[in-house]
Every structure is written in C-alpha cells, then in structure tokens.
Design goal:
By secondary structure, this protein is an alpha+beta fold. Helix content is 53%, strand content 8%. The chain has helices spanning 2-8, 11-29, 34-47, 53-56, 63-80, 85-92, 99-113, 119-136, 145-155, 164-175, 187-203, 249-252, 289-297, 341-344, 346-350, 385-392, 413-429, 434-447, 453-459, 462-480, 483-495, 500-515, 520-531, 535-538, 542-554, 564-570, 577-603, and strands at residues 228-233, 256-263, 266-268, 282-287, 302-303, 323-329, 353-358, 378-384, 398-399. Strands 1, 2, 3, 4, 5, 6, 7, 8 and 9 form a nine-stranded antiparallel sheet that branches. It starts with a helix and ends with a helix.
Length: 604
C-alpha cells in the first residue's frame, strides 16, 4: 500500500494513471477507434510532460513495427501470387468429406501457415472455399467456421511473425532493456499449445458446435446468401403491380420475407399478405443474395435510392458495365460502426451501392438507409472493380470475395514461396537481423513480380501500425514514473504465498479476461510493464512473464470480440454470442492449465 500512496504523491505517475484509465474506458466503450485512442494517449503524455517527444514516439521507429510493415507486404505478395491455391484445392477435394477431416486440415495445415502469415487474410481467403464445401455437402457452416478461427489463433503463436501482438511484446521487451525476442523465441512453447489445441478442435463433442442451418433455396446457395436486409421499390412495369403479397411471385417463387411496406407517408407492418402492391411502393425485405439479384434482373424490383442528391434511376448495374457484386465485413475498430449509410453518404464516399445488409442471426428492422452499422455486419455491395480494389486498402471494410483478376500471375507462385522461406531461414542461420530479412524479402517480391510497388502501401494496415506504435509509449511512461513498479508490488501482495505455477496461471487468466473487453495489443501494453517487475520475486527471467502475457492476450476463445477472426466468422456462421463461449471455454481451460506449466518447463 505504501507504494500506491507514493504514486499518488508523484504528479507524473498520477497523470500516467489517469491517461491509462481514460484509455481503458475508451477501449471498452469503443467511443473512438482503437488507434485514435492510442494516439490521444501519446499526445496527452507528451502535452503533460510525462514523456519527451523522442521517448513517446520511439515506438513508431522500432524494428518490430518496421518488421510488421514489411510482413504486410510479404503476405500480400503471397496471396496475390496464389500461394494458398493448393490449400484451397485441397479443401474442395473429395478427400475431405467430413467436418472432422476438415477441422483436422485446419489444425495441421492452416494453423502453421498462420505462424508466418497474418491470420486475418488467411481466414478471408478460405471463408468462401469452406462455405462452398458446406453447401456441396449440405452442412451448416456453423459446424466448421469457429474451428477455422481458433486454428489460426493457435498458429499465431508458433513464431514471432504470427501476430502483431508478438512483435509488440518484442518491442516492449527491447524498450525495457531486456532485448528483443528472436524469430523462434517461444516456438518451443507454441508447438505443444498448437498440438493440444488442434487435438481439442478435432475431438471436441459435436454438440459444442451449434447447427445454425443453411440456405435451402433452389439454387443451393451457401451461407453467403442468407439473411440479407434490403430496401426496394416497385417499378411501374413490375409484374407484382396489382397483386397481393400472398399471391405474388415474391412469396410463391422466392425466399423473401416482407418486413414493412411504405406507401407515401404511410407505413404498414405485418401481416401484409392481403396488401395489394402498387407502383412506387417501398418494401423492406429479408432476402437471399441469389433471389435479390434474380428479382432485379427480371425488373421485378429496383433498389431504393438512399443517398440524398442521387440522380441515378438505375439501381443495379450489369457486369458488362464493369460492375461486380461483393461482400464486405465491418471489422473490429471500423470507424463506420455507429453511423447509418445515409449519414455516411456511403455511395458517394466509396463509389459503391449497398444492395443489402446481413447481421448474423439478428433481424434488422430499420430501413436500410437508417440502420446503424455495427462491427461484424456484412454488406452486399455493387461497385466498379477499381472501387472494390480501393475498398481492399481500407481499414474500415474487409472485402470477403476474391477478385478473379487481382493476382499478378500464378507463375510467380514458386518465386513468392521461395522468398518467404528464405525470409524465415536467413535470420535463423545467419547474424542478419529479422527486420533486415523482412525488408529484403519485400524488395525481392517486387523485383520478382509477385507484387507491384504501388500495392505495397495499400497492403499495410495503417490502423494496426498507429495502434502498436502509440501503445508502446504506455510501457515507457509506466516504467519511468514508477507506476509499473507500484502496481507490480500490489499484485505481488495478492499473489504472495501462491506457488509459481498458480501465480503464472492468475497472470495468464487475467490477461485473457482483459482481452475480451479491450484489444489484445492494449492488454499487452498495459500488463507487460507491470508483470515484468514480478520476475525477481518469482525467480523467473523477465522474458517468462512477458511470454505469459503474450499467450494470455493471443489465446482468445471466449467471445466474438476477443479476436478479429472470431468476428469474421461470426456472421457467416450465423453464430450467437454464447456459441463462441461454449465452444471456446474448454480450450481456454486447457490453455490455463497448460501454458503456466510450459513456461516453467522452458524458463523455470
């Protein structure tokens, strides 16, 4: 307690604590995007004199951050050269017939790939393939999509390059004077975790994975085509004019639910079966993707205009006019969340027409233009190819469909794979630093034609770079003001008398729980400088405590928000919130029991 009292007598420590608490509140509430919260914290620490600009901004020039930027470019080159094509073909092959076999493939093949390639693009690339596999075998995607996310999370701790959080821990370790982590610093711990976790995924009772159904329309569409909300108008020459909804083609031939009918200033809610359809009626529909496009092609309906000032009467443009229909996801931290399409002026801002919206199992009752977007929403867009490529560079939207002509040439695949392997081997076998190896790999990818120079900038996730660069300042401020030491002594008081194994378990579990409410990078930045002070009392090297926090922040299996890939599969799998908790609870318990033991085995 004396240490905490001393903190309250230190103005700079008080300021740091206030900024820290403010950041935690903003991270939890989501008032600002995570990277903006990080930048605000850095600015406040500089403005109040807690840190000099050189110390506060040192994280933006750290080797770990430069390594991550280069890794984004290398990963983009791998995907665009078709490096995962063989895996996609394997998933679609006849040898993978059952969900258990597919989950085994995810665990033993996809997870190791996530050890060297960021897991977000891996999941985005494989989602449509796995959904197609489910449609072909008439299975619900909810039986296999959560294992896909969990497998990539397990693989992310196999090497230093598997996750941006790994690189942040390496950066914090170096800033605090303990040296940076090597490429395979925690691989000896990561491999048993990967194998045990994969075994759980394969043999977990099937009852833990819900069967949320699949689309049974006549086209045999995949889960991509379920649960879209859209708003349409009835043109004068529509075949629906003069018919009641009950007798119309909407009900007889298509899988369509009419949620609201608006006629002038009047709105009508279900039951609507006996309502006669008139020209100009505005309908709020829940419809499959395939049925929506077919209804438009037959001029049965038109997409309702939502953007004020739009003069276009043609709501859908044909593929011959250079348009393409794609799905995009609002990822965690998207600045579009919390606003409606009308407020965002989405069409003018992105040169894209929103055809429909899907929100997991939930039915969206608002009119499409007024529906407030949320993280995890999936939008069905129609836009020119160039606009879609622009969306691929956006941090606010994640394009789930692959553009057929987006790859340079498959002939570059062997070159890209060879460069990636060399990038991993050279720093392992030679004194060359990892950051130099990654940067040389970027240049080699451009020289080998695997990625264009202009695409490198688009491949870098600026939101991740800003967040990690700003969060590293927390560690420096907490260390220099004595706040980290005071908090560590308080934590040591509560852990006093516990065996080292149980103390590590408490640290791991605390990090895991905190990660469910704020980003895993923020969890690491807040806890790492505190727990590292416990090393001497626990008779462990500081690296052991850092890696405990690293795994606690990375092995996140309890909520959809706990990890980006959980959120990515949440909508397509039609999951409910506690589906993730039910399936991930057993895996979390396994990790809690296993990881402290592995830490002691490696460092004790």
């Amino acid at each position: 307690m004396a240490d905490l009292i001393a903190v309250f007598q230190n103005p700079q420590a008080l300021i740091t604590l206030a900024v820290l608490l403010m950041a935690v509140v903003l991270f939890i509430r989501g008032t600002l995007a995570p990277e903006l919260t990080g930048l605000l914290s850095v600015a406040l620490l500089m403005a109040t004199g807690v840190l000099t600009p050189q110390k506060a901004l040192a994280g933006f020039g750290s080797p770990a951050l430069i390594t991550l930027m280069g890794l984004f470019a290398v990963s983009a080159a791998l995907f665009r050269s078709g490096a995962l094509d063989r895996l996609r073909e394997l998933i679609a092959s006849e040898s993978i017939r059952t969900p258990r076999r597919l989950i085994a493939l995810m665990g033993f093949v996809v997870a190791p790939i996530s050890g060297v390639v960021p897991n977000t693009p891996v999941v985005a690339s494989l989602l449509p393939v796995i959904e197609g596999w489910c449609a072909k075998r008439q299975l619900s995607p909810s039986r296999v999509l959560l294992p896909l996310s969990f497998a990539t999370v397990l693989g992310g701790t196999l090497t230093l390059l598997g996750s941006s959080v790994n690189l942040l821990v390496s950066d914090i370790s170096q800033q605090l004077g303990y040296g940076s982590l090597e490429l395979f610093s925690f691989t000896a711990i990561g491999i048993p975790i990967w194998l045990v976790g994969t075994t759980y995924l394969i043999f977990a009772p099937e009852i833990l994975l819900p069967d949320r159904g699949r689309d049974s329309n006549e086209l045999g569409g995949s889960i991509d085509e379920i649960g879209y909300l859209t708003e349409v108008t009835i043109p004068e020459d529509s075949s629906l004019v003069g018919q009641s909804l009950h007798n119309s083609r909407l009900q007889r031939r298509f899988d369509v639910d009419v949620l609201e009918l608006q006629r002038g200033k009047d709105s009508f809610l279900p039951p609507l079966a006996d309502r006669t359809i008139e020209p100009g009626d505005r309908l709020l529909l829940r419809v499959t993707r395939a049925d929506l496009l077919r209804l438009q092609q037959e001029n049965t309906i038109q997409l309702a205009q939502r953007d004020s000032g739009s003069k276009n009467k043609k709501n859908f443009l044909s593929p011959e006019e250079g348009q393409k229909t794609v799905e995009v996801l609002l990822p965690a931290g998207s600045t579009l969340a919390g606003a409606s399409l009308r407020e965002l002026r989405f069409r003018q801002r992105h040169n894209s027409t929103v055809l429909a919206l899907r929100r997991g199992q939930q039915t969206v009752q608002e009119r499409l233009g007024q529906a407030v977007l949320r993280e995890g929403d999936v939008l069905l867009l129609q836009a020119p190819i160039d606009s879609i490529r622009g969306l691929q560079a956006s941090n606010d939207l994640l394009v789930l469909d692959q553009l057929e002509n987006d790859l340079p040439t498959v002939r570059r695949k062997p070159i890209a794979i060879s460069i990636a392997i060399a990038m991993l081997l050279v720093p392992t076998l030679t004194p060359l630093p990892l950051v130099a190896s990654v940067l040389l790999a970027v240049i080699a990818m451009v020289a080998g034609g695997c990625i264009r120079a202009g695409e490198i900038q688009r491949s870098i996730r600026l939101d991740v770079i800003l967040l990690l660069g700003s969060l590293s300042s927390f560690s420096v401020a907490m260390q220099s003001t004595g706040l980290a030491d005071a908090l560590a002594r308080s934590l040591q008081y509560w852990l006093q008398g516990l065996p080292t194994y149980w103390a590590l378990l408490v640290i791991f579990l605390s990090t895991t729980i905190l990660t469910q409410f704020i980003s895993n990078a923020a969890s690491v930045a807040l806890l790492a400088p505190v727990v590292i002070q416990l090393a001497s009392s626990m008779e462990l090297p500081p690296t052991a405590l850092l890696i405990t926090v690293l795994f606690g922040a990375s092995q996140s299996f309890l909520t959809p928000m706990g990890y980006q890939t959980n959120l990515m599969v949440f909508g397509p799998g039609r999951y409910r919130f506690f589906d993730v908790t039910r399936y991930g609870a057993g895996l979390t318990v396994l990790m809690c029991l296993l990881i402290p033991g592995l830490i002691l085995w490696q460092y004790g």
